[in-house]
Amino acid sequence: MLTLAIFLPIAAAAVFALLPRRLRSDVDPARDDPWTSRLRLVASVVGAVPLLILLGAWARFDGGGGFELVESSEWIPTLGVGYRVGIDGLSLPLALMTAFVFAVAIAYPVDLRGRPGPYYALMLFLEGVSVGLFLSLDLFLFFVFWDLSLVGIYFLIGAWGHGDARRSALKFFVYTFAGSLALLLAILGLYLATEPRTFDMAEIIRQQPLPAGGVYATLVFLGFFIGFGVKTPVVPFHTWLPPAHVDAPGPASAVLAGVLLKMGTYGFVRVLMSMQPETFARFAFPIGVVAVVSIVYGALVAMAQTNLKRLIAYTSVNHMGYVMLGLAAAGASIAGQEDAQALALTGATLEMVAHGLITGALFLVSGSILARGDTYEMDAYGGLAGRAPALTGITVVAAFASLGLPGLAGFVAEFQVFAGALAVYPWLAGIGLLGIVITAALFLRMLQQVFLGPLPERWTEWPDLGWIERLTLGTLILLIIGIGVAPALLLDVIDTFAGPFVGR
Amino acid sequence: MDDTMGSAGMDMASMLGDVIPELVLVVGGVVVLLYALAVPRRLQSGAAVLALLTVAVAAATTIPMLDGPEAYTFAETYARDLPAVWAKLIVLAATAAVIALSLPWFRSDPRSGEYYTLLLFSALGAVLLAGATDLKQFVVSMLLSSATGYVLTAYHRLSRASAEAGIKYFLLGALTSASMLIGVAYLFGLGGTTTLPGLRTGLTSTSGPGLAVAAALVVVAVAFKLGAVPAHAWMPDVAEGAPAPVAAFVTSVPKVGAFLFLARLVLVLPPDGLGWRPLVAVIAATTMTLGNLAALWQDDVRRLLGWSSVSQTGYGLLAIVAVQRSELALPSLLYFLLAYVLANVAAFGVVVQLRGRTDRLTYAGLARARPLLAATLTITLLSFIGVPPLAGFAAKLSLFAAAIDAGYGWLAVLGAINTVVSIAYYARVIAPMYFDDLAGPVPVLSRTAGFAAVITGSLVVLVGVGAELLFRAFDGIQLLPS
């Protein structure tokens, strides 16, 4: 079943890419081409299938510890490579979130530049590899999906982006591919230390092939740290993110921020903390410092932005800092703090899910604003609340969720992260709290600039969200509220992983 | 007396049985030549069909050799071991693709018949080089491979670029040939024999500086075939100036033989005292770095592919560095050669099918006009970068793993950094194809060439996905009689 969730979208992508030119209507960019909306409908339906499959997997998930619903077969046994997928309390929520964000992003209307066929092919392909990444239980397979996701986004930004899209796409590709090569070397380092040699994650976690200490273990740790850190991104590896986000089309940004950034933090937990826990514990404090720098720096820089999308991009740096802080606290080896550490870990995991949904919604909204107003500069807007109540309402909820208002998804996650981190690294967490204050200020200012005040003359004909936008964004908002009100549903799943992980 | 004669005769027959594919290539080449001399100009294309047939028969006689027995025949001067057999198959596959590309390219050339003879002999040179376990054998196959290469490169004798490329290739080749002959003579003097198995016992680390100089001279000659520093300079010029199908051939096929001979040669050198491993490591490092940096500024796609070919040699040399220290070294070398040769021939194949168009800017919008060709070129370039699941990825993975395993982690890190740099210039070709609007009409050559390019390109994907079969086949192979 899990395999189907990965390869159905990829197979559909191949079909979309190979459609005859007349059907994918990418010869003449005629906007009223009937095939465009039909293609979108088909792509949306296919894009929703992995979500249904994963919901089925959730229903069958019992959380007894270890990996469940495992599907495996040999692939390159001479090198110890296998095709292995499965779920546990960590990967299930992230895979679910991924499938959900993709289903929404694929259905979301966007300027296709007369090339719907390749666009939907790339989105479906990305969905398949992203879900695959969170489900894979083999480092080799993990890396294959990791790299494929980069290629997919590269073409999405380059061909459908705006502004200096090609430059941003290339910068994104070079940075993240550099990270992925560091990751590759680290994986090889880990692989060569296993006996018998294998890429099987469960087996490596059992073997713990690299005890802490020594240059070798540290180098492997560094490789992993750079690989995952670039993707997350943590300061100072974040510079690829703002241009990539600003120039990408709305749904691609939503996917990039909502899903792809999580690959980095997921890797920290799944690979680094699980396979080199002692080395991670050694470096937990510096990682915490980096996290806090990301939090405060990301928030401050976001505060200074006049460009709506750039602002949201920098809040992503800030929010991923929360996740990293939670992970640093969870991975530190401090005796007697197991409860706090489990709290930090569940918080960090929940933050990954919550940030995926929230930031996905915010980027989709900014895409809609761009489609209507042709600019991201917040100065150009104002008073939209009167003209577009639906747009305003959705943005306000998403922004409040992002700044951590109780009752919404972001609050539960941030509360747990900070509650856990305060017990382990009180000073760091104290400084990190500043980030929450700053993000509150900057989101309120953003809402005020765009939606309140007098309506500029040129926007008197501003159209509110269409029904597809309302439906897709509405489901995202419902989920954000749902997780905020009843977090236990997800927390129970995450706890089946987090509890045993910190040895509670 | 009669008895020994009889057994010698038996030996001769069985020895000839070991080189049937090579004999097929020789005979086929001669047949093609006679055909070209005999038939009128309008039938010259028939020579391509005969050449293709020759390659097919040679491949058919090679495949049974995969099941052994391994042997070192002709008094241990020539190997029919698994690496040599695989090298043969790689060379033959590439040659077949190049013949298919050449057929439409040379159709209007009234004297194209001999071309295929040269191509077959050049392939033979690469094959012999891959099997050489003797210094004299090495010299002969190097010269055969080089001499045919010069002529092939300059085959468009009226084109200045082609003639210039031929001259550059020849001058550098002449220089390194001299270095090869001196080195070989010196090695013979030090070791007392010319067979590699004999030299392994004959050469001792006490030979000191003399041995180092001799080995270095031979390595420089091999570096010429590989397109490695310091004898790499012909690569971009040949890629740019030679007839496009020849560029596909000369920038990849001879490397197969040269890499295998280099791997055999370093096995012979005494491991202690000489320090050939650091030497090859330095060559690998400079080759990949120089090739990448030079490629960054190319606006000519063929020159860019030429420089990229230099940098790819650098990655391949990682396997040589790891020889004997990592069991991954030989499998990764063979896999790399397969992945690299296929991708290189496919990339040049797309250029051939586009009638040799070479300005980077004229590739704008190609994805809309010729989606299949654009996809093929993209796949080959992504394979050069090493994006999974293409063949180049598994190649880089195993090369890096072998280097780390051999204690040369820094080389793997340098390879990774180089890979990142390489993205920039590969993307300079990929991006305009997909992100820009069509610049003008896109004339193509013929269905045959397009078919050959696309098929070779899809092999790059297949080899990547089916890496297991190959790695299993390469598992535990040896290069010299133990």
TrEMBL record, chain A:
One of its GO terms (molecular function) is NADH dehydrogenase (ubiquinone) activity. Its EC number is 1.6.5.-. One of its GO terms (biological process) is electron transport coupled proton transport. The keyword Lipoprotein does not apply. The keyword Calcium does not apply. The chain crosses the membrane at residues 41-61, 81-107, 119-135, 172-193, 213-230, 250-271, 283-305, 311-330, 342-370, 390-412, 424-447, 467-491. Residues 136-439 form the NADH:quinone oxidoreductase/Mrp antiporter transmembrane domain. It is a multi-pass membrane protein. It is found in: Endomembrane system; Membrane. One of its GO terms (cellular component) is endomembrane system. It holds the Pfam family Proton_antipo_M. Its main location: membrane. Keywords: Membrane, Oxidoreductase, Transmembrane, Transmembrane helix. Belongs to the complex I subunit 4 family. PANTHER family: NADH-UBIQUINONE OXIDOREDUCTASE CHAIN 4 (PTHR43507:SF1). This is NADH-quinone oxidoreductase subunit M. It comes from Actinomarinicola tropica.
